[in-house]
Amino acid sequence: MTKPSTDETVLGELLANRRALIVVGPGGVGKTTTSAALAVRAARDGKRVLVLTVDPAKRLANSLGLAALGNEETRIDDALFDSANVPLNGGALFGMMLDIKRTFDDLVERHAPNDDVKQRIFSNPFYDQASTALAGSQEYMAMEKLYEIRERDNYDLVILDTPPTSNALDFLSAPDRLEDFLGSSSTRMLLKGMKAAGKLGLGFLRLNTRIMRGLNKFVGADTFLALLEFIQSFHEMYDGFKERAGRVRTILRSPDVAFIVVTSTEQSSIDEASFFHEQLKRSQMPFGAMVVNRTRQSYLEGTSQAGLAARVAEAVEPHVDTAAPAVGERAAWAVERYEALAAVDGERTDALRAHLGKTGDSLVPVPLFERDIHDIASLSAFADHVVAGS
User: Fold this and answer.
1) Element housing 277 (H / E)
2) Cβ contacts of residue 322 below 8 Å, gap of 6+?
3) CA angle at 156 for the pair 44 and 286, rounded to the nearest 5°
4) Could you tell me whether strands 20-24 and 257-263 are parallel, antiparallel, or unpaired per DSSP bridges?
5) Whole-prediction pTM value?
6) Residues 6 or more apart whose Cβ sits within 8 Å of residue 119
7) Which sequence spans correspond to the domains of the chain?
8) How far apart are CA 99 and CA 53, in angstroms?
9) Do 381 and 390 contact (CB within 8 A), yes or no?
10) Which residues of the chain have pLDDT under 70?
11) Which top CATH class is 10-296+368-388?
C-alpha cells in the first residue's frame, strides 16, 4: 500500500489505493465540492475516475463544464483540463448523476421472478412514489449503483457524493431497509392473512361488498387493494433483494473502500460528523478521513492587535479624506471579529481531532477560500489543499 509523502494528507493514500470513496456528511458542508476536487486530483494522477452524485442540483455538472449530468457516465472533455492548465497525465474523468427511479426500475427488472410480477409492480400506482420516496430508497439506490459500477470494473476509482442526511444511520442502514420492510413480521403477517382470506386472495376482498363498503369509509377500497397488491408483488422479489443487500453490505466493509466524512466548522455539523464517525466504527465500516471545510485562518498570528485601528487609519489616510479614522476603526473591528471567529474554528478543529483519538491525523482542515469553487481550475486548487495540505 502506498504511503502518503510527508507533505501529503491521508487523502493522498486514499486516492492512490482505494477503489471507491464514499463522501458523507450533513447538508451544506461542501460534500459535492470535495468529491469533485478529489476526482479531479485522481484524474491528474493518471487514474480513470468516475464521480457519482445523488444531488439533483447542477453544481457538480456546472463545475465540470457541463450543462447537466444524467444517469449515464459522461466523460469530461480533456480540452477543459487543457484550458484550465490542469494536466491529466493519461487520466480521464467521468461524471454521473444518479436517477433514483431508473435505478429502482433496473432493480425490479433484475429481481422480478417473471414478467407478470414485473408488470404488476410497474403498473401499480404506489410504485412511482415508492421508487423515489420510500424510506432509504435514495441511499440504497446510490449504493446499488456503486455496486453495479464496481462489478463492471471500468474505473480505477469511483467517488460517491452522497445525499445529505439528517441522521448518520439513514445512510449506513440503507441496505437493510427494503430487506427489513419486505421480510418484517408485520409484512409476513399481512400476506399470510391475505392468503388465508381465500384462494382468490385479493379477488376475495373485491367480491366481498361488506368489506369494500367498510374500507371506503376510511382509506378507499381501491387505494387499499392497490397497496396490498403492491406489497404482495414486491414481496416476490424478497430473496433477490436480500442477496443483493448482503453483497452491498460486504462492499461497504471492503478494504478497498473508505468513507470520507465532510463537515464545516459549525458546531451542529461537527456534532453530526462526530456521530457519523462513531457509527462507522460501531458498524465496522472503513473510516478514511475527516475533512473540515471552510476553516477560517488567522492573519495576525504572532502580531499584536493593539493599535490596529490607528495603523489601518494611517494606511487609508492618503486615499480617504476626513473619514480615515472612522474607516480605520470599522476595518479594525471587522479584523478583530474575524480573528475571534478564526480562534473558535481552531478550537473546534482541535476538539474534533482529539475526538478522533488515534486516527486524529486523518483530520484534514481546508481553509475558507476567498472565491467560489466553480470550475476545474478552482477544483484543482481546492484539491491541492485537500490532498497536498498546501
Assistant:
1) helix 267-282
2) none
3) 105
4) parallel
5) 0.80
6) none
7) 10-296+368-388, 299-358
8) 10
9) no
10) 1-7, 55-59, 67, 129-137, 164-232, 234-236, 238, 301-309, 312-313, 316-325, 389-390
11) alpha beta
